[in-house]
Amino acid sequence: MLRLARDGVSAREIGRTLDVVRSTTQDDLKRATTAGLAWLLAGDLTDAVLEQRLFAHAGVKSGFRRRVEPDWACLACKLKRTAST
To answer: Residue 37 class from Cβ within 10 Å (0-12 exposed, 13-18 middle, 19+ buried)?
Structure first.
């Protein structure tokens, strides 16, 4: 994807070539630009490091939620009870 973009191929054509939708291509290219990635990638760049650079959210801890999740089982029971009455 990065190589094709560097060669001036449109996001639509890259999507067709890689069999992904244009919006995914645009999102991925935007992530790569934000992460400072361009073709040709460094040879010592591992998949784990690449994934971290592309998909890490700056300032947000992995697995951290701002709000407590609801008790989904309790909510489902309440919804069933309301629907049957």
So the answer is: middle
